Amino acid sequence: MFDAVKKFTDKHQKNGAVKYVKTNLGILSAFFIMFLFLSLATQRFLTADNWINIFRQVTTNTTISIGLMMAIIISGIDLTVGSIIALSGCVTVKAIVALGIPVFWAVILGCFVGALSGLITGCIIAYTDMPPFVVTLAMMNVGRGAAYLVANGSPIRLSTEEFEQIGSGYLGFIPLPVVYTGCLLLLTWFILNRTRLGRHIYAVGGNREAARFSGINIKRVQIFVYTYSGCLAAFAGIVLASRMASGQPAVGVGYETDAVAASVLGGASMTGGVGTIGGLVIGALVIGILSNGLNLLGVNSFWQYIAKGVVILIAVYIDMFRKRKQRF
């Protein structure tokens, strides 16, 4: 049975590498059409400053989408990412301002809080069999409330060069948040494609019963995925707090929507077992360019919410259509 699961996941991973363009042909086509349209519609779109801004802005969504995509791969969901962004940012800034903790250790503390939140979420899902949607929805409210409690309901200001460099610094001409996100993408790609844990993650989402009979510890996989997702969201929150020079308890509202959109557009299947880092990058770029392009065109922000909602519906429908076609 284990050999069957290994064969299934190895085949999935191989196809994901060899047939990347074919698998992501739809989203790649949409990406280039959008790119061409915006290039013709506004001259500002192709400027170097605008593209640096796009890459910097998509880093937050890409980072949280990594963990959320992994939750989707195991047939779950993680709605806590937005509230963890707020909580980790507030905890980190509060630790520096109120407790005088050095920036490095405050960042570690913020990441630990996010990982702990994910650990609690993962344990509840693994040991109670409650639906991940319900658990993460509840934990989203817990995290948001905790962020307001830590911040006493108002932003915590912090203006120090050491802290601001985390989110506003550069490595050459590349913004540091882009460097962080690139490293996290490579790390996650390695976990999913070159480790036994990654094989188990795909197996749990592809066929849970087969994974259980093959001896895979499903609870351990679930706990790892949600802990990892919480840690990634926390790090994204710390970088964002650094860019804003403050811990904002209200930040991150609705971020999970963009993360779901990026994951599904990138080819992650809501039924589980499917999802790649390469596809996720394209999905996140599409969402980022969509937001940037609508801003450049002067489109009302309310219409942007509608556009993103329509994009998610279309992406999920295409995924369902593809799955139905494969069955027949």
What report would you give on this structure?
The chain is mostly helical. It has a domain at 54-252. The chain is built from 15 helices and four strands. The protein has helices spanning 2-18, 20-23, 25-41, 48-73, 81-99, 103-128, 132-151, 161-168, 176-194, 196-206, 208-213, 218-244, 255-265, 277-296, 301-327; strands at 156-157, 170-171, 174-175, 246-247. Strands 1-4 form a two-stranded antiparallel sheet. A hairpin with a 2-residue loop joins strand 2 (170-171) and strand 3 (174-175). The chain is globular, with a radius of gyration of 20 Å. The two termini are 25 Å apart. The model has no long low-confidence stretch (mean pLDDT 89). This is ABC transporter permease. The chain crosses the membrane at residues 21-46, 66-91, 103-127, 133-151, 171-192, 223-241, 262-290, 302-321.
Largest sheet, described in full? 2 strands, antiparallel
**With helices defined by DSSP (H or I, 4 residues minimum), what is the helix count?**
15
Which residue ranges are poorly predicted, with pLDDT under 50 across at least 5 consecutive positions?
none
- Beta strands, count: 4
**How far apart are the first and last residues' alpha carbons, in Å?**
25 Å
From the spread of the alpha carbons, the general shape counts as globular
Within the largest sheet, what's the order of strands? Answer: 1-4
**Arithmetic mean of pLDDT:** 89
Strand percentage lies at under 5%
- Please state the CA-atom Rg, rounded to the nearest Å: 20 Å
Secondary-structure-derived class: mainly alpha
Order of helices and strands: HHHHHHHEHEEHHHHEHHH
Helix content: over 70%
